[in-house]
């Protein structure tokens, strides 16, 4: 396993071909996924059901032929065990309650012990690892800033008003919450590694809404702490760090002790390589899967060519695959990357 | 008028102080605006009412003391005269119908003659210019890509699926629509200049969702054509070009014959200045107006210091002022820029 192309690419060794996985590859674009999702109850119920979560995790291996599976779960899975209720309201997204407003509110938030509080995640990983022997399994967590933005807003937001004003106007509350979340994320990721995942991705999905200063002073130090703790314990487990719209933060994230920087489609690879020597992941625009095949082939060709100059390159979309995507186009993408990506 | 600090900054001459205006400065954060808006009927009715539109345009001059007014209007004002119906549906944003799907659909779209089809815009400008004698009036239009994205989607979109797939899968339709829109925008902006605006801003609000290649080949040439036509006729009228999230496109836009590149808050000024020698506009995060005063002063200080290295600098927010903003904070921002921005 340790010589699998994804792990080699992450470590900056030379694999035989450019490996590919796809963000949200076990998702709504798949009819089989929708079927399993429908019988599971709520979305969070599916995340908490090891048999079904494992089945969903493995779907894209068979359906589209990706080189790795990613644990089917959600960034809110550990958050609900902190004592915050999550509800998915149609047309509105996640609604979190109670909304954290004070330092005292933060004190009430628990740091979940994964073995006791999240046994279904560990069990899901163990089930997947039994069935998936020839490809890596990716574990993941949301990063503190992205989680904090939901916890302070009580849900999704366009302007990140609560998160940004808290970091400016109430630095003590910000530090307490980010510190608490860093503990949660660290324990959660370590439990995934101990259960058997082969590499991890940290989703700081929304970091790109921050300017360099805010990111560097109010967010980066917490992610750095998480990464350093994990690397101190499990130096051999590669870490991928990803957020959309974050090309302006690459030179800061280059200082994180992670192995791979994920890129969205706006950040072209030559630019990224001028800011970091790390391996890269990405970065086809998810909408490209709605284009004619020759357009997909052309853009894959460009990305692979550009990625050759990187320390290592894991192919991926620049953000999650869109629910309306035709699965045959996802399969075509994987086949195209494998056909053009011989190294 | 031609020596006003905003015009000097745009041209790269040295004004006495850093001038400021604010995107959406005549907007919902103002109680007086909400009052006028309520008596006008629909939002589009307000745009079509010269007396009220002029009154709204001038509000922020008195209320917060900005250095320029911007015509109160909407990017859809010329679009409805192309033969597309616009409705603002609460919680959904603009809904456009019919949705353009074929080359034949494009052929039915009219190029409005501003004097005949948009007389209220010209009249609004003339009314404002009578009252506003000591500061410039900014005219504006949406750019073809931003307008095309609404026209092809039939409204707002998160993924720009229709616009992107049209540019890839149906390049003829894309070219016809973008060409038509370029004619519309050119005529519309020229009519504003002839009615008396002192400078113009082209809002290519959503260009930042495109990768460099798409932007360069499928969008830039149309904006270039508009700008070159206007500059051929009115070389003395400065042009500002702005879109959110478009730091990765600055080096392309540097080749536009515009005077000022607008920056959102993610794109730090030193980075922008490494990509363009043009004057810049921006770029305080609009959420900063919810922070404590000393945070606002500090960030204004940084932006002014950084802007000194630019050819010229017009202070602005990095995107529109948020409706929930306390007007006294907007006033404080303007005063702070004037206090710290002596040159």
TrEMBL record, chains A, B:
Site-annotated residues for Transition state stabilizer: 74
Residue ranges occupied by any Uroporphyrinogen decarboxylase (URO-D) domain in the UniProt entry: 19-28, 138-154
Compartments, record wording: Cytoplasm
PROSITE patterns: UROD_1, UROD_2
Pathway: Porphyrin-containing compound metabolism; protoporphyrin-IX biosynthesis; coproporphyrinogen-III from 5-aminolevulinate: step 4/4
GO biological process terms held by the UniProt record: protoporphyrinogen IX biosynthetic process
Positions that bind substrate: 24-28, 74, 150, 205, 319
One Gene Ontology cellular component annotation held by this UniProt entry: cytosol
Domain of life: Bacteria
Catalytic activity: uroporphyrinogen III + 4 H(+) = coproporphyrinogen III + 4 CO2
Listed EC numbers: 4.1.1.37
Alphabetized UniProt keyword annotations: Cytoplasm, Decarboxylase, Lyase, Porphyrin biosynthesis
NCBIfam families found in the cross-reference section: hemE (TIGR01464)
Biological role stated in the UniProt entry: Catalyzes the decarboxylation of four acetate groups of uroporphyrinogen-III to yield coproporphyrinogen-III.
PANTHER family xref list: METHYLTETRAHYDROFOLATE:HOMOCYSTEINE METHYLTRANSFERASE RELATED, UROPORPHYRINOGEN DECARBOXYLASE
Family, as annotated: Belongs to the uroporphyrinogen decarboxylase family.
Protein name stated in the entry: Uroporphyrinogen decarboxylase
Annotated source species: Desulfurobacterium atlanticum
Organism placement in taxonomy: Bacteria, Pseudomonadati, Aquificota, Aquificia, Desulfurobacteriales
């Amino acid at each position: 396993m340790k010589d699998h192309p994804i792990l080699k690419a992450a470590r900056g060794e030379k694999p035989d071909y450019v490996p590919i996985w796809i963000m949200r590859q076990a998702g709504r674009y798949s009819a089989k996924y929708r079927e399993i999702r429908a019988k599971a109850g709520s979305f969070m119920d599916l995340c908490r059901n090891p048999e079904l979560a494992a089945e969903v995790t493995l779907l894209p291996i068979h359906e589209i032929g990706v080189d790795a599976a990613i644990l089917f779960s959600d960034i809110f899975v550990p958050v609900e065990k902190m004592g915050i209720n999550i509800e998915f309201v149609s047309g509105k997204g996640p609604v979190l309650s109670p909304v954290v407003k004070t330092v005292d509110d933060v004190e009430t938030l628990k740091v979940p012990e994964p073995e006791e509080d999240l046994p279904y995640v560990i069990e899901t990983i163990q089930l997947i690892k039994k069935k998936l022997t020839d490809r890596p399994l990716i574990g993941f967590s949301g990063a503190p800033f992205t989680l904090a933005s939901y916890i302070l807003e009580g849900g999704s937001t366009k302007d990140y008003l609560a998160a940004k004003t808290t970091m400016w106007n109430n630095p003590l509350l910000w530090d307490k919450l980010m510190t608490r979340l860093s503990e949660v994320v660290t324990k959660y990721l370590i439990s995934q590694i101990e259960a058997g995942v082969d590499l991890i991705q940290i989703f700081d999905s929304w970091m790109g809404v921050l300017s360099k200063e805010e990111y560097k002073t109010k967010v980066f130090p917490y992610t750095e702490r998480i990464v350093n703790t994990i690397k101190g314990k499990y130096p051999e487990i590669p870490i991928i760090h990803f957020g959309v719209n974050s090309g302006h933060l690459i030179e800061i994230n280059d200082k994180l002790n992670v192995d791979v920087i994920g890129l969205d489609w706006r950040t072209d690879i030559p630019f990224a390589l001028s800011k970091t020597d790390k391996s890269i992941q990405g970065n086809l625009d998810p909408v490209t899967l709605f284009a004619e095949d020759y357009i997909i082939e052309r853009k894959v060709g460009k990305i692979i060519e550009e990625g050759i100059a990187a320390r290592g390159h894991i192919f991926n979309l620049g953000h999650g695959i869109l629910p309306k995507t035709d699965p045959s186009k996802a399969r075509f993408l994987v086949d195209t990357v494998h056909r053009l990506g011989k190294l």
